[in-house]
Amino acid sequence: MRKLIEKWNYDKSKEALYTNTKLTAKYESILVDNLEIALHMMVRPSSDYLHTVTHMGKTFIVCIKAKTCTCQQFQLDELPCPHALAVLHKKGLDGDDYSSLYYTKENMMKT
User: Fold this and answer.
1) Is the keyword Zinc-finger assigned to this protein (predicted)?
2) For burial by CB atoms within 10 Å, which of 4, 49, 50, 108 has the most?
3) What is the pLDDT of residues 92-107, one digit of tens each?
4) pLDDT of residue 49
5) Is the separation of the CB atoms in 51 and 43 below 8 Å?
C-alpha cells in the first residue's frame, strides 16, 4: 500500500512539474472543454457579479463573486462550469483564478 501511494505521489509531482499552466493538465483540459461549450451561450448581466446565462433554452444564474451557478457544478467541483466560464469570458477574466487552489500546479507539487 505504501509503495502504491509513493508511486501515485511521484507520478502526480512529475505531471505537475511539466505543466506550463497554472492548473494541472487534467483540470486545464476540463476548463478548455467547458470554454468550448461556453462560447455558444448568451450572457446577460444583472449586476457586476450576477449574470443570467442562456443555453439551448435553459437559463442559469451565475454569481462570480460567490462562485456559484444554479447548475451546482461550480460549487461542487470548485471549477468554473460552462455557464460561469461564459460569464468570465465575457468579462475578460481567467477561469484559473476562479478554480480551487487544490487544482493548481503549485499545490500538486507540495503533495
Assistant:
1) yes
2) 108
3) 999 999 999 888 877 6
4) 95
5) yes
Distance CA 3, CA 47 (A): 52
pLDDT exceeds cutoff 90 at 73: yes
Whole-prediction pTM:
0.78
Alpha-carbon distances of 10 from 23, 24, 29, 100, rounded to whole Å? 18, 14, 21, 22
Is residue 19 over pLDDT 90?
no
CA separation (Å) from 43 to 19, 62, 75, 82, 97? 31, 10, 19, 11, 20
CA dihedral 10, 7, 22, 104 (to 10 degrees): -120
Instruction: Find all residues with CB under 8 Å of 55, minimum gap 6, and list them.
Output: 37, 40, 41, 42, 82, 83, 86
Q: How far is it, in rounded angstroms, from Cα 106 to Cα 58? A: 37
